[in-house]
Every structure is written in structure tokens, then in C-alpha cells.
Amino acid sequence: MRHTYCNIFKYKKYSHFDSKKDIKHWLAYIKEPKKICSHGFYPFIHFTMKKYTYRNGETRTKPREICYSSHIDRYIYEYYNYLLNESYNSYAKSNGINKCAVAYRNNLHQNNITIAKEVFNFIKSGDKYFILISDFTGYFDKIDHKNLKKNLEIVLNVDRLSNDWYKVFKSVTKYSYIDLDNIAEFKKMSLREVRKGNRIANVVELHELKKHLRKNKNVFGIPQGSSISSTLSNVNLIDYDKELNNYVTAKNGLYRRYCDDLIVIIPEVFEKELLDKFQYLNSNTPGLEVNDDKMQMFYYSNHRVYHNNEYSKIKYLGFEFNGSDVRIKERTVTCFYLKAYRLINGINKISERHKRNAYRRQFYKTFTHLGMKKTKKNRGNFLTYVDKCSHILSEPDIKKQLSHHWNRFSKRLVKFTKDGT
């Protein structure tokens, strides 16, 4: 095994239909194509993740459908994803799209901050730009299998997928899954109890659970959550990226796509031409559906961003840009405070009940500057991220967005003295 493979496998503690084992138990197995050809993939486990967002003064939930694989299957996906990423990187470099598809790459060494910095600096370097921001509706759920297979063969530089690759491809296109809720109901356990065990179900229980098995019988859709789905989502759009990027760069513009979120910056004189090109590509790419509600158009000139002839801000990858200054999205900051306030309310109730200051250390570590420092056991907190944004983007005022957090939290936290008063 080459040294470069060492960091691609991750031991995870979640429970599934197989037992938790380190990669050393499976390494020889997953590297043998004949073993993969005859491998029986377990069903994915499906659940709906609720993502909380704050908009127009209201907290809303945004459902996200997640499927996660068994431990042995995950190791297989991680290994084949590594091989695919290497092939995709080579293809992207030789076809001029290495820099435009920026998500899920293992060779660009970028994150949302550095990507946003590049985009905003490009805008500021120009005179008059037209800026288009858009995303795709239910992208993973609508990926066309025929188009994906064609592009996968192109990226792997083969006329036909080998048997092991086809087995992996089939496992994420004609995948099967069982809802976590059905498992909990079958075992008469809470979701938390189900997740705690070494295995979610033994062989006999898994056989019984097959009555809840669901299969993707469509000719489109891959599970969002498998270790290889991310790179496949890039492979699916190689033709789209190539054509749009070639057009935009020829006009001295910039095109970047972060999974299903894209931004195009082009001299203002090419606005109509770009929109026609954009509509053509979207209509002629199988399975692609643009989210019209989220499509935004801006203009930049004289260090200002305009929308409908009014001063505006571009919101991209968690940041707001007004043409000269960059800030973390206000909605992100608001969500941070709301999350902290909800936890404070819970802490106050416990503190009132026991007449003592409860869970303060844990709260301070999670939500204040006292937990910013990174250690082997502590990855930092949101303020660590804020500090990183300020440094990379060279925007000192970003720190001011959270400068009053200590005072705000202190006013809300109930305080008890040693005698319980």
C-alpha cells in the first residue's frame, strides 16, 4: 500500500448492520478487485437530518436526506473514491477545469474561506462585472445514471467499467436502504439506544428488517452520504464545467462551482450572452434542474454591488460582500446566538432546579473565546472559525461581529453564589 493511501480511511463509531472494525482487518480485502466483484453491499441506513436556518425573523427547519453505509462498505467507498479523485484531478488538469470545480477535491488544499477570497478579490480587480449566482434543485437525487456512467468511463480513461468498478457504481445508483425509524420501531428502542450498540441488528434481525427495505428503482439519483458520492457529483458535470468554463474564461471572467452552488463573474457587456449560454447548458445536461428561486443577478462597479439598481451584497459560501468589505453572513451570526440562547435557557432551568451554576465550563468552551484555542482534544469553536476568516480575508472587522458575545451571554446566564442564592 502506497504511503499516500494512509489518510483516506477513517474509523467511525456509529452503529450499522456490521461490527466496527479498524481498516487493518479489511485492507487486503478491499484492494482485491475479485473480492469487490462478489461483495454483498449492506443496505444504507436512511434518516432525515434537520438543518435549522434563520430567515425573515423566523427559525425554520430544512430537511436533508442522508444515507450512510456500513463500515466495510464505507472503507470500499473511501478506497475507490481516492482512486477516482486521482483520476478526476488528472482529467481536470488536462481539460482546463482544475480550478472551477472546487468542492470535494484532495489536491486543491482550499476551503470555503480561501475560495471566497479568490472570488471576491477577482471582482474587486475588475471594472464592471455581471455576477450570476445559482444552484441546482435536489442535485444528488437527480443525477442521471446513464450520463454519470459515461462520464465515469471518460474520467477513468476506459471504454467500459471493470467488473469491480461496475459493482461499486451499481451499489450507489441502484442502492437500497432502510429507514432508521423503522429499525427503532422494530427493536422497540429509541433512536439513541439503537445508535449506541456495536451492531444495529444481527443477521436474523436484518433478515426480518428486509420487509422495510426500499430500493432506488429510478434511472437517476445517488445517496447523499456515501464516501464516493461527492466525487461522483463532480464527475457528473465534467462536460458542463468544461463548456461553461471555456466560455467564461475566454471572456476574461471567472467560474467556480462548489458542488451544486455556482458563481459566474463576467464583464457586464456579455450579460445576455451568458444567460443564453447558461440556459442552454442547463436544458441540455441530463437530470439538471436550476433552482430559479435562488438564482441571483448582481452588478459590480466602483467598489459597489448592485441588485435592481440598489446597493446590495453578494452572499457566497457563508460570507457577504458589498463590493469592498467582506463579513460573515448576518444570518450565520444570528443562528450562532440563537443556538447559544437555547442552551442558556436549558442551563438556567437546571441551575434553578439544583441551586447551583450548572454546565458553565462546557458552555464557555463551546460558545466563547475561552474555547477558541485548538488542542489535540479541542478543535476550537465558532469563534476560532471567525478568527480564521478575519486572518485569511484580511478583514479585522469580522471579529467585531462577535465582539459582544461575552456580555450578551453573561446577562442571560443565571448566577448563584456559594450559598445557593
Characterise this structure.
The chain is α+β, with helices and mostly antiparallel strands. 42% of the residues lie in helices and 16% in strands. The protein has 16 helices and 13 strands. The strands form 3 sheets. A 6-stranded antiparallel sheet has the order 6-7-3-8-9-10, with helices on both faces. Strand 1 and strand 2 form a beta hairpin. Helix 3 packs parallel to helix 10 and helix 11 runs antiparallel to helix 12. The radius of gyration is 24 Å and the shape is flat. The model has no long low-confidence stretch (mean pLDDT 91).
List the helices and strands and how they pair.
Blueprint (H helix, E strand, L loop, with lengths): L26 H4 L2 H5 L6 E12 L2 E11 L2 H24 L17 H13 L4 E7 L9 H12 L6 H11 L2 E4 H8 L3 H6 L6 H7 L4 E2 L13 H7 L2 H13 L3 E5 L2 E7 L3 H13 L12 E6 L2 E4 L2 E2 L2 E3 L2 E3 L4 E3 L1 H25 L5 H8 L14 H11 L12 H8 L9
Parallel strand pairs: 1-4
Antiparallel strand pairs: 1-2, 3-7, 3-8, 4-5, 6-7, 8-9, 9-10, 11-12, 12-13
Helix pairs in contact: 3-10, 11-12
